[in-house]
């Protein structure tokens, strides 16, 4: 007998030795999209990654991500799903990195 790693099993007529009389139906799990940020102080001290937004819809994740980028005045190093911003404060230079992760 093979191991069955399907998520949903429904009854059916018949006697299948593999499923023991059950119809096997695989259900696809949705991917999760995360918008994350990491802050660096004075190019040396990195803080932990922070999740800003989480969804299962790619369009919602992209909409939120581009809204963040539009509101940042000095975005640079812009790539698909990634950008950086710099801010200069009394404490020194603060660099924020934003990106989209898919799990």
Task: Give an account of the 3D structure.
The chain is mainly beta and 103 residues long. It has one helix and eight strands, in the order βββββαβββ. Strands 3, 4, 5, 6, 7 and 8 form a six-stranded antiparallel β-sheet that branches. A two-stranded antiparallel ribbon has the order 1-2. A hairpin with a 3-residue loop joins strand 3 and strand 4. The protein starts with 7 loop residues before the first strand and ends with a strand. The N terminus is likely disordered.
Short description:
The protein has 103 residues and is mainly beta. It is built from 1 helix and 8 strands. The strands form 2 sheets. Strands 3, 4, 5, 6, 7 and 8 form a 6-stranded antiparallel sheet that branches. A two-stranded antiparallel sheet has the order 1-2.
Order of helices and strands: EEEEEHEEE
Q: Cα-atom Rg, whole angstroms?
A: 23 Å
- In percent terms, what proportion of residues is strand? over 45%
Give the fraction of residues assigned to helices.
Answer: 10-25%
| Unreliable spans | 1-11
The overall pLDDT average reads 82
In whole angstroms, how far apart are the ends? 31 Å
SS field, number of helical segments: 1
Query: Strand tally, please?
Result: 8
Gross morphology: elongated
- Which structural class do the helices and strands define? mainly beta
Can you summarize the main beta sheet? Answer: 6 strands, antiparallel
Quaternary structure annotation: single chain
